[in-house]
Amino acid sequence: MSITSNKFCWMGVVMLAAVGGTAQAGVSLDRTRLIITGKDSSASANLTNTSPDIPFLAQSWVEDSKGNKITSPLVVLPPLQRINGGQKGWRGSPKLMVLTSCRRIGKACFI
């Protein structure tokens, strides 16, 4: 391989790496954590699609401190939500599940 073709090959790799790493986000959150105490029955977070015309899907779940997904006693509803351009959505937790869990352990629940 000649030096010129080797240079063009490396230039192509660098350009692909620079262009391929871009990402666009269109959903903004009003908070990143929800705290539910024993006296609260639920908690919610507001999501806003900042794009005026592109819809986005927002997926939510609950994890423990080690990053493992939790399926009970806390649950996020809806787990997958479409938010159209310029609209707002919300993430919450069901009242009975969180209320039972927080009162049983007697502490605050963090989502």
UniProtKB/TrEMBL annotation:
GO terms for cellular component: outer membrane-bounded periplasmic space. Gene3D superfamilies: Immunoglobulins (2.60.40.10). InterPro entries: Ig-like_fold, PapD-like_sf, Periplasmic_pilus_chap, Pili_assmbl_chaperone_N. One of its GO terms (biological process) is cell wall organization. The keyword Signal applies. It comes from the Bacteria. Pfam families: PapD_N. Residues 26-88 form the Pili assembly chaperone N-terminal domain. Residues 1-25 form the signal peptide. Keywords: Signal. This is Pi-fimbriae chaperone protein. It comes from Klebsiella michiganensis. The gene is papD_4.
